Amino acid sequence: MPELPEVEVTRLSFANNIAGAVVESVRVGKTLRWPLGVAPMHLVGQHVAAVRRRGKYLLLDLDQGLLLIHLGMSGSLSFFRQNSTPGPHDHFDLQTSSGLLRLNDPRRFGAVVYAPSEDSSQAQKLLGKLGLEPLSSEFAVDLFYAGLKRRSSTIKQVLLGGQVVVGVGNIYACETLFLAGIRPTRVASRITKQQAGRLHAAIRDVLTRAVQKGGSTLRDFSNAKGESGYFQLEAMVYGREGLACKVCDHPVRLLRQGQRSTYWCAHCQKA
DNA sequence: AAAAGCCCCTGGATGC
DNA sequence: TGCATCCAGGGGCTTT
Predict the structure, then answer these.
(1) Angle CA(A5)–CA(A8)–CA(A9) in degrees, nearest 5?
(2) Cα angle vertex A106, ends A102, A110, to 5°?
(3) In order of start, what are the domains of chain A with their CATH numbers?
(4) Which nucleotide's C1' atom has the smallest distance to the CA of A257?
(5) What confidence tier does A214 reach under pLDDT thresholds 50, 70, 90?
(6) How far in angstroms lies nucleotide C2's C1' from the CA of residue A222?
């Protein structure tokens, strides 16, 4: 479910509410991708200083260390002002003095992991190889182009891989390649500087607008206040196999790349 | 070092 | 209605 815009919208929806709050109790349900990595008691009494985002990870800064939260494929966070009883897929609760932060995740590909610091091995194992933040000023065309230059796999897989640029998931990878007119099977290192420029602009543009629109919902995304997004940025190709391309009327194609579906238009994406 | 596969898990949609 | 099969927006881990 969540790509960068959904994670960022989630962060914005509760960061100000939880900042400065004190952890009162922690409830761990079924184990997620990994165990929490610390005794829940250790978190009690600590302040939540801030909520940051790195790629698709949310970072909750505590007095001592931080929590790394990932939503996986099916995770979502909710923030409750009042008490609420957990449902069958609510696998982590952080009760604070200002409200309850709850992770719901049916598939349990998500994670909540404690790390003693951002430099710790626990944190670096997850964050250490992440690429450029597409919505920050560090996302320069030159750096992006240089990153693509040293990759020999296809551009679609490089976008998904997160080692050159973070936060672009399957939907946005398909959509940005369409907007840039680049075929998804193109070897990344053979992309020209001009094409890299178009792709760079498409990534910034689409992700920025998706955050502004409240996150896309092809299915069921909602932020931590329970408000759903609308997918007002309509997909040009994603999920549209066999339908007419919105630009040229040729049928949208489907292909498999690394066990993921890629949707694209062979007529519009010739670069 | 990088790339390619393999998995983790549940629920919803589709087909018989 | 019931059951089997396929698919899903992610990414760490293991093997090449």
Answers:
(1) 85
(2) 65
(3) 4-127 (3.20.190.10), 141-264 (1.10.8.50)
(4) B4
(5) confident
(6) 33
